[in-house]
Design a protein that fits this description.
The protein is α/β, with parallel strands linked by helices and 318 residues long. It is built from twelve helices and ten strands. The protein is globular.
Length: 318
């Protein structure tokens, strides 16, 4: 990476300046993707720009942006582009966020309608500065989409809201179709990888969603290649099933810059298949496990399969 790019990354992430440089490893063949160039990609980009929206696709440097945007699939990132936390894996800017945009719910809904989305994923930065962690804003976005695009199913990927009272309840009352909250990694690695969060707080959030409304699908995701052990991944799977989580995603961690956490290793496609087989054996309704899997990758197709899997399980129990 050129020096000017490293300097720009340091300015963008001042909280990471004092971290040691971790040289970025060359990606194996199975994880390389083509640069986005299609007309449909450009059309999606224009709609995002016209509605002044942020997307996690861009902010987090997702490797699948070319494929997804070419299909007019974009994951909207609400509540600004500045996060109040500094996770060691994340490329989103850390700092002091600005005020919420009261027009954002309507702009998101208008973009969803214009893109003609059957299924949309809405995520956000962490907003620990807000009294409810941004829960009401999530609810407003969900309601605005329901009004503008009633045929669109809605998946949300939320922060933990700093465990603020009533936050989860506020979002659940707006009735998203899928409530996703990522555990990201195994408990042992939280102090270095996700220092602003607590593993069991995140796990309890997912359990609370299912208790409040069993009809809502719950979902969580893990990154691998950070130094976790296979037995630890298996234990996290058991914890998620104990919380009645329906859908698990597992993908390869990719280091955004030398200032972020280093990759311990690239997990092979065969190992991802093994994780998927173990997870299915533990009872998840859906599992997506591959090097390029991300929380919202193929989310629409996965949601259809998720509903079919639930229907089949209900039918088998009758």
């Amino acid at each position: 990476m050129a020096k000017e790019q490293l300097d720009a990354a340091a300015r963008r992430h001042p909280e990471k300046r004092n971290r040691p440089d971790n040289p970025i490893q060359r990606k194996p063949a199975w994880i390389r993707v083509k640069a986005p160039v299609s007309r449909d990609y450009q059309a999606t980009r224009k709609i995002v720009r016209d509605h002044k929206l942020n997307t996690v696709c861009e902010e987090a440097g997702c490797p699948n942006i070319g494929e997804c945007w070419a299909k007019k699939h974009a994951t909207m990132m609400i509540m600004g582009e500045v996060c109040t936390r500094a996770c060691a894996f994340c490329n989103v800017t850390t700092g002091k966020p600005g005020a919420l945009d009261p027009m954002e719910p309507y702009n998101v809904a208008a973009a969803v309608e214009k893109l003609g989305l059957e299924h949309v994923v809405i995520t956000s930065v962490d907003r620990d500065d807000l009294d409810d962690g941004g829960a009401d804003h999530f609810a407003q976005v969900i309601r605005a989409i329901r009004e503008r695009a009633p045929g669109t199913t809605i998946e949300i990927l939320t922060p933990d809201f700093k465990d603020k009272p009533g936050a989860v309840e506020t979002v659940v009352e707006a009735r998203p179709d899928v409530f996703n909250h990522n555990l990201e990694t195994v408990p042992r690695l939280y102090p270095t990888i996700r220092p602003g969060a607590r593993f069991f707080t995140s796990l309890a959030l997912l359990q609370r969603v299912k208790r409040l409304d069993p009809a809502i699908f719950t979902k969580s995701g893990l990154m691998v290649g950070l130094g976790e052990e296979k037995v630890e991944i298996g234990q996290v799977m058991d914890d998620l099933r104990a919380a009645d989580v329906d859908f698990l995603t597992i993908g390869q961690y990719l280091q955004p810059t030398p200032k972020h956490a280093a990759i311990d290793r690239f997990v092979t496609p065969e190992e991802f298949d093994q994780y998927a087989a173990v997870a299915r054996g533990k009872g998840f309704l859906m599992v997506s496990s591959s090097p390029l899997t991300r929380s919202s990758y193929h989310a629409g197709d996965d949601f259809r399969r998720l509903r079919e899997a639930r229907a089949a399980r209900i039918a088998a129990a009758e």
